[in-house]
Design brief:
2 strands
Amino acid sequence: MTTYQIWISFYTIIRKDVLRMFRIWPQTFLPSVITSALYFLIFGAFLGSKIGDVHGVPYVMFVVPGLVMLAVVTNSYANTSFVMFSSKFFGRNIDEILVSPTPAWVLVAGFVAGGLVRGILIGTLVLAV
């Protein structure tokens, strides 16, 4: 395969995944935002008022990076595993991808890049909350 053909394969895998994410955005983005908002409310407001400061930093600000990374890591892993599982069992389109001359590393890189996109989007939304 030429470099251009590899790029087209990679782009197609990412594009398919991103379009799926935005097609079912209530199932993709809302649960993470609501869960993180509940974490912020419980750990930040209720528990944070009892704890106070941690080394001079308010407890809410101390917890925020961990909760953002929790959402990012969980969603990026869930996206990558779900895309592989669903394309094998539900859509049965993994066979078409495997039959194509696309190298295996491009397939894996495309799935991982799709998870990376979802993780960055979720992290941005959670940080906005």
